[in-house]
Design a protein that fits this description.
218 residues, binds SN-glycerol-3-phosphate, alpha/beta, TIM Barrel, 11 helices, 53% helix
């Protein structure tokens, strides 16, 4: 399973990249706004900066909601760097845009996915990645992981090549379960990645090893 970081914060991207386990980055308009990146020029430069830090796929989301707008924006974004993946919302014109990009060799990430029906449409349109939003489903008292399982089963049965990119990840357990249930990729905040390191028995065991070593070696 590939690990992406879900942020537009360059410091956090560098920190995750330095761990040596990072395969890519996803962003969205909210994450860009959080970093204060506004205006076309600044947005384009920010994506270029991210591509220079990480040697892997970088999802850049379109703002337009009509086919022509998405195509124009997506072509500009794709021209920034070969690692850019155009992120397109799961709406009618989005499906048309994914088909357009797919026919021209431009890779896509279909975002805001909350059902298996949407996942089938995105795969049929030729999406490279599909982003089901696990945490937001859990927030609604449903089980986001059940959706990952269902999509993984459908994609396997049908032989769809679209990769399942579990998004809206909130904690380490989401990552573990995504791996267990067949996600191809998880995109996570840095806190969830670092949270996977934690276990009290590791800390206790290490303290004991160091104490024993110190006693034996004076
Ligand atoms: O990749 C989509 C993700 O950023 C949404 O996460 O935490 O805003 O639901 P969240």
């Amino acid at each position: 399973m590939k690990f992406f970081i879900d942020t537009a914060n360059l410091e956090q991207i560098r920190e995750a990249n330095d761990l040596g386990i990072l395969d890519g980055v996803t962003t969205n308009p909210s994450l860009m706004a959080k970093e204060g990146i506004t205006g076309e020029e600044a947005v384009m430069k920010h994506y270029k900066d991210i591509c220079e830090i990480v040697d892997g796929d970088v999802s850049a989301e379109v703002i337009s909601t009509n086919f022509e707008g998405m195509v124009a924006e997506g072509e500009k974004l794709a021209a920034i760097h070969e690692n850019i993946v155009v992120k397109v919302p799961m709406i009618k014109d989005g499906i048309k845009a994914i088909r357009y990009f797919s026919d021209r060799g431009i890779r896509t990430n279909c975002t805001l996915v909350f059902s298996a029906g949407q996942a089938i449409l995105a795969a049929k349109a030729g999406a490279t990645y599909l982003s089901p939003f696990i945490g937001r489903i859990d927030d609604m008292n449903w089980d986001g992981m059940e959706l990952i399982k269902q999509i993984a089963e459908i994609y396997a049965v049908q032989g769809y090549e679209t990769q399942i990119l579990a998004a809206s990840i909130r904690n380490p357990l989401h990552i573990v379960k995504s791996a267990q249930f067949g996600a191809d990729v998880v995109t996570c905040p840095l806190s969830a990645i670092l949270g996977m390191l934690k276990h009290p028995l590791t800390d206790i065991g290490l303290a004991q090893f160091l104490a024993d070593h110190a006693k034996a070696n004076g």
